[in-house]
Amino acid sequence: MVPASPSAARLNWIKNSVEYVRSNIQAMDGYTPGEQPQGGKFIKLNTNENPYPCSPKVKAAIGRVCQTGLQRYPDPAATAFRRQLCELLTGELPDISPEWILCGNGSDDILTIITRTFVDTGDVIRYPNPSYVLYKSLADIQGAEVDVANYQSDWSLPPEFSEPQDRLKLALLANPNSPSGTIVPAAAVAEIADALPCPLVVDEAYVDFADANCLALVAENEKIMVTRTLSKSYALAGLRFGYVVAQPQIISELAKVKDSYNCDALSIAGATAAIEDQAWLAENRAAILATRERLTNELRSLGFECVDSQANFVWCRHPRHDSAQLYRDLKSVGVLVRYMNYPHWGEGLRITVGTDDQIEAFLAILHPLLH
Known about the structure:
It is built from 13 helices and 13 strands. By secondary structure, it is of the alpha/beta class. The protein folds into two domains: about 45-55 and about 280-370, Aspartate Aminotransferase, domain 1; about 55-275, 3-Layer(aba) Sandwich (Aspartate Aminotransferase, domain 2).
């Protein structure tokens, strides 16, 4: 049977259907993730993934869930993970209990939940520049305005980041920051939170590679929320699991907004097994920090200006070579790094810390491109 042709009215609706989309969604560019090549062979140093396999305990835990079966819904509260995390964090936050923790499908999901909870159309979100570009997309989706505070030349926050403002409902601070890898000390973060008239999210996606964190501040100030992910230090970017630590009265409000089952049974089991294996984390961290130091030193010896990083990547630029061209030249020979160009700041390359073999190959390819 030949299907009927669409009516003129139907064709007109198809043509103009975008008009039904919210105006702020039509206007926004949307978040652009780092490149994930689907074919070919690359040295992939562009999305801050951990270059090593995850703990074997993760695979074993996921296997046990698969053997049990996936016909039932997962625990909507990820209780097993939250209890295990409390054991891990009690030294830094003695009063922590599962009621202080909400889990999500990566920390991006957590950031979305927080934004949806606190920010309404016409409200203001503040974040520094350069920083995680997703923050702008979260504001755009809510129909919120952004108040961007440019980092100072030494990567410290400007005074205006702490200033009160009408309609300011949320401040976001990546700490360690991306793309710079720099960190704002906890004492300074505490002062910022005291001055702000709104909640402050300390996005600690890379904190396991840093020398300090802001977790203890959660108990000191109800406005402070700390978000983390297992994508980076636990080598679970493909699993998608993150969490936020905040005071219980905040967590209970965030829980109203999250999807019913935003973490699946496989991710809960894998994430719980990952944080149980702290010996694996310590070994992995040591390897990445050693390679990070080597990468930084080698880049500087080639004339790059590099920021001292507290994350698993290095931000750099070369005074005599265009960053965009270097990115293109590297990609043409099978090396992916992240080229970024920020308004009112400028461009640079963010290079993920890979294995020693990957970094050695990268440097061997990079050297002749500079001469």
